[in-house]
Amino acid sequence: MKDGFYTFHVTRTGWEPLSYTPPPNAGFVTVGGKVRLIRSHYGSVFLRPVKQDLSVTVKGYDPVKEEANRPLKGITVKLTGVDFTDDTVTLVPPQSIITGEDGTYKFEKLAPIRWKIEAGRMGYAAVTSLVSPNANGTFQPQTLELQLKPTKVKVVVASPYQTGNAVKGANVRLQGIRNSNTEGIERDLEAQADAAGHTASATFANLLPGRYWIHLLHATTLSDLPSRSGPLFGPSSFQVAFFPKETFAEVAVEKTEQIRVNLEPVPARVRGRLWATDELGDPESTNCDPEDRRVFRLIAQKGITFVEHKSIKLLASTNNSLTIDTDAAGGYTALVPPGIFGVQIPAMTEYTGHNIEFGDLTEGQAPYPGPWPYPDICPYSTYEPGHHGAGVRLDFSHEYQLDLFVHRQYVSCALTPTDRRSRFTTTIWRPSAPKWLQPARRRNAPAPRGGRPISCGMSSRGLTRSRSITRITPRSR
User: N or C, which end of the chain has less CB nearby within 10 Å?
Assistant: First the structure.
């Protein structure tokens, strides 16, 4: 530069312009705003930036709204001023914020330098972006896209029933925990029957890692069950509901957490009395039909067992029966899981089931007489309609009256007339111990040529010895 007087002006886009004047007593000759230069000098100036705003929006899959490309709340955004040529060199210390409902934050009063933006949250892949000022020193608004890492919770629903139909359709609710990474997430799914096993499952995808509360609620009707027990017809369906179940699941990022929930059925309440008969009211009557002549009494007994009917096969052997005892007056109360059940009393070796009186009190149904509910499949082609039954239906939460009537064993005898002028000849069979799992089989003597057998029921107490009977009323048994 030539010797002369100069004015110094310093400008840069994004920075406030500066006019330089040497300070007094610095050895410079100045005239007004000009400085005389007669030799080389070194000088430095500091420019003030024109402060600018930088708007940052974070978008991605929102697990709360279950929508993609949504503004994301709760994302940590860190902003650091870095060198234009080396972004590892920090010029301005980092500042961090957390995005609000709109997923946007405006950083204010920033110098027009290069800035590094880092955005992330547990469960998302972190994103980094470098932003430089425009030619006019301003910043272009920035939008960052975050990718959700695949995180799932699978809830497997099981029950004591050996079929997926028992838990298929169960309502499974998943909720995030307040003030945690999962807050705001709430989903409802219906469990779908699994191809293998006796379970159903619901899989919640696109979740954030963390802790979740799980709630299950379910009620259904199990239908199209086997309704035949040999020649006997029984119930083909029953209603079951399960106690609500709550649990928690903790899932890590990019993992699938599987949790098994075992539901417990709401039982039916069965109450009743045990009646027993040992004799007929009038065993010497010329009409020996015992049905209207039995003398019943209440009896205390241990080991009354409710057993799921063997044609149903829904409950495992570990929980398909329930054994209770009566009180001293012969009364009992049992909480039985919903299903189709028979009754047996193995300890009563000298008695056999006669009939029941059964009523659904919840439905306002008075007890009515019915056949004894055997738990086994009837192996015979014939049966006694008033005494041989295929089980009773028990629905959840219902209250039932079930009075049990047993009698000492009796036998059927077959008599064959040999001549119209002769008396009948009586044949006696002594009974064996009862088989509670099977109805007693009718035993008739073969009919000789020219005659036909006549079957009648008689009390075993009255058949202690053979004797002739002048008249006997035939009764099919």
Answer: N
